[in-house]
Amino acid sequence: MTAPLTPPPPPNEHSSYQGGPVPPPVGAHALGTPPGAPYGTHGEHGGQDGPGMLTEVRQAAVTVAAVTLSGLLLGVLWWKLAPSVPLVGEVVGDRWLVYLKESEGEQSVGVDGTFTLLALAFGALSAVVVFLLRRRGGVPLVVALGAGGLLGSLLAWRVGIWLGPAQDVIAHAKEVGKGVTFSAPLKLGAKGALLAWPIAALVVHLGLTGLFGPRDPEPDPWPAPYGKTSA
Description:
Layout: H1 53-69, H2 71-81, E1 86-92, E2 95-100, H3 107-133, H4 139-163, H5 169-176, E3 181-183, H6 196-212
Antiparallel strand pairs: 1-2, 1-3
């Protein structure tokens, strides 16, 4: 005599297709697709990361203009703070000669040093302002910061020369008289000082972005188990 067979379980009333909506595939929630969303749509985090390229180019153009115009202030400060180089005019025969009153003076070095220090300060300040206004950074913004710093240095150089003493030292010597000391025109002997602003701006902005910039989310090393969805 044999044991009676165990009756089969009753059929699940939800197992057959009743014409309702098709459930989402396994792992849809893990991939970021909300329930009921049509295939191919993006979830909450599936859109573009950051502004579009056109917006970034516009922001870069504004950055170049603002940083360049700040070179006007650098030129004024250079003119005010740079040491004066004393010159003296003498008449030899029927010719005017102009020479340095202090042949071993270091005023000329001080003129270049003043411009360099001011440019470094402006570079650091512009990098901080740009970072606070636009923390995400981006290639167009970094290029704009460097280009604006270089253009600002060139503008400051020309503004300082324009505000400083007259460029025609012979005419200036004739105007003040023989043997009278007058100031030489502003002159940037070391043209490499023009790169101080953009270099300082890029270095400071890079450091701020690396320390305080946004971080990309780290991928989950443990995928969701098969058949389960995330909360």
